[in-house]
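Pipeline run #58 for the internal structure catalog. This entry was flagged by the ingest filter as a single-chain record with no existing model, so it goes straight to prediction. Upstream metadata was stripped on purpose; only the residue string is passed forward. Reviewer on rotation: M.T. Logging verbosity set to normal.
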Amino acid sequence: MSDDGVASGDWVSLDQVLSGTVRRTGAVAAGVYLLSPDEPVLGLMTMCGLPVKAVAPWWRVTMSAAGPLSEAVREDRLVWVGRQEDMARLYPNAAAGLPYQFALAFAPLRGTRRWGALALLWPESHPPSLTRRERGHVLSSANRITQVLDRAPAAWGIPGEPRSVPLLRPGPDPAQAGLAADDLLQRLLVGALGFDLQGRITYLNDAAARLLGRSTDDLLGTLPWQAVPWLDAPVHEDHYRAAVFGREPVAYTAPGPSGRWFDIRLYPGDSGISAFLSPSLREPAADAPSPRITPAPDPPSQAAGTGRIHQLIHLAAALSQTVTVADVVDTVADQILPAFGAQGMVVSAADAGRLRIIGHRGYDPRTIARLDGLPLDTDVTPVGHVLRSGVPAFYADPAEMTRAHPQAPALSGKQAWAFLPLLVSDRRVGCCILSYDRPRPFGASDRAVLVSLAGLIAQAMDRSLLYDAKHDLAHGLQQALLPVTLPPVPRLAVAARYLPAARGVDIGGDFYDLIRLDDTAAAAVIGDVQGHNIKAAALMGQVRTAVHATAGAAPGDVLARTNRVLMDLETDLFVSCLYIHVDLAERRLHLASAGHPPPLLHSPDPAPHTVALPVEPGPLLGIHPCTGADYPVTTVPLPPGSLLALYTDGLVETPGTDITDSIAALTHHLTRNAGRPLEDLADSLLHHTGLRHTRTDDTALLLLRSR
């Protein structure tokens, strides 16, 4: 039994399946992601064929992330991405953080529970599609891994650092050939190095040791960027990752110590990477910057360098797609917390001299209640100082926090904190706090990335606060213009829905109404004002008022008088409208239309059927120059138990689809679902994918059922 509770035999089985999968599929690497039982995060458990440090930015992936891995687990299906352009087209956020040429496949692992996914990587040379044989190997390997996991379901977990699995390849004993190869390489004046799949130096000739300035014994078995400080630079990390992912040779020139420049060539293969190092023949420009000499690197868990840069790009792409404050909070919680290993988060916004907490994770609500509403200049926690100075603060343990703010550690019970001011053009937007359940040092790379991240969050937060303010204003206006409730009418059941199309304003010109005339009569009205803005909404309110003022008259007269009101207003907007006088005593409908789509009538007897009522349309309101616009009235029977559907064209207009076909599809859907409760039926009609896939216009719906 291993230290983590997994039987050694199970590890052997998993290693063999993973290594065998790489061989059978021709992939260059494979890994197993596990779904955490405590949070919606996928963690890399084991990796075969690639150094685990090379994939450090992707050790943890949130389930809500828009990427192929999370999609495979969420939708329980094999996801294949054959080319980088496919990744950019299908998953732009993920592509921003993976600027390499390769192919990927993710197969879900589902057994006694939803375990996670098997990940496989191929070089750019792989065809853009999986063959049937490769697909079979991937799915069968995923099945075998699931069986291994199912044998001890309580033992498996996400480690702090993924386990590296050797890639086992059959072959002859290389001892004899190795001696000859060593003699050959030692005679070269060019530095030659060999790296295994974990990135460790397995061989170097004397020339390489001399150029790197270290002895062979000091370098063998080490990671080069740890043993040789000047190799710990983003340029080397980025080219190294490009080689291991793309499996293509990489050549570049980079500065070394004492102003020297080196030509470096990387040749990746199935068992590792061969590298050649030689002094560059190029002469650097006189104003070339001095070489970057890196001090002792951060601990491996911090994933410094271009890994963090790609991570920032990915998070920036995710934040760029947020719209509301809730979107920003969810993105920070779902993607940034796991990426930085934090367990708690508080996001506050500056509001009228106080800090209003607008989102949090990992905190007791009672703690949040104590912290909500603190003044901006508070000294109870570091937030006040951070916002006043604009300088982030990092506390590695409670003792460090206590020295600066004695009361703060007891407020939350956390053990380490990062306080990040959210500033936009020196304006205080708020503060983001990441906290940890254990003490945690913050290295230079972590601090730099978190400060950059705070700027991204601040921009997204500032934009979303403005959006929410506009949304609240528009929503309030819309609610004021539409009926708060529909009046009860004996023997008539009613349901209504409204969906605006305008993004960012959430307001439109569609409207509906039900006006009770007496105990046996009502007027049902639906209309569509041209446009999707506040001007359209304002005109909609005037039209509703005009209809109310004349309701009860003949339907044609109601529309004619409303048209005169619009002509007097001298508006340049047009309005379609349908007015129906519902006579429950005589069981008749009297209809008049101002260029509006026909209503649908479903009759249960003698056989259930739905028809679009043939209403002769009159001109649109506001378009006819004379006062005598004619609106013909159509009268149809209202059978007992019948259902009437009034709608605006947003429900049936879809680009590229004939509106007649859309109305026919709506009619068919209404026939099949007419027996459902009225509220359920209203939701069903709005979201029926057979009618429309995207909402390009405002949509109003009014349903009436005769009891």
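catalog note: Residues 322-473 form a domain with the Beta-Lactamase fold (CATH 3.30.450.40).
catalog note: The chain has four domains: 8-165, 184-285, 322-473, 482-706.
status: ready for reviewer M.T.
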